[in-house]
Amino acid sequence: MTRQRYVALTAAYNEDQFIGRTIESVLSQTVLPVRWVIVSDGSSDRTDEIVRGYCANHDFMRLLRVEDTRARGVIRKVNALNLAYAEMRDVEYEFITNLDADVSFNSTYCESLLRSFQLEPTLGITGGLIYE
């Protein structure tokens, strides 16, 4: 498979129970993102501390902290993702993934998503299945 370059965006709000597992899932990928920006959207738990710890050891990871969280609902998440997207200006990539802060997945998940685009070049979006 051709290695295709992708970036990841994550909005996180009080996800200290899940964010470590999400990060470990990304770190286990057979194809890593060239940059992953996690936006802590006013978290009041240990989310920032956990993410900072991983960022210190992985150059492709970034943490942004948002203090002004007056927006609510989906607008709040959109604003956080827009901030993360702005951090991609200096990176070359072909694909963007919006990754929730409370998910985990196997080590070939991102590779399989990229393969979908190779198999169907006109594909505009792809995703995986959710198991609860």
Write down the secondary-structure element order. EHEHEHEH
The CATH topology corresponds to: Spore Coat Polysaccharide Biosynthesis Protein SpsA, Chain A
**What amount of the residues lies in strands?**
15-25%
Class by helix and strand content? alpha/beta
Q: How many helices?
A: 4
CATH class: Alpha Beta
What topology, given as strand order, has the largest sheet? 3-2-1-4
The whole-number mean of residue pLDDT values reads 92
Account of the protein in words:
It is a single chain. The protein has one domain (6-119): Spore Coat Polysaccharide Biosynthesis Protein SpsA, Chain A. 25% of the residues are buried. The chain has a four-stranded parallel beta sheet with strand order 3-2-1-4, with helices on both faces. The mean pLDDT is 92. It has helices spanning 19-27, 47-55, 73-86, 109-119, and strands spanning 6-12, 35-41, 61-66, 95-98. 33% of the residues lie in helices and 18% in strands. It has 132 residues and is α/β, with parallel strands linked by helices. The chain has four helices and four strands.
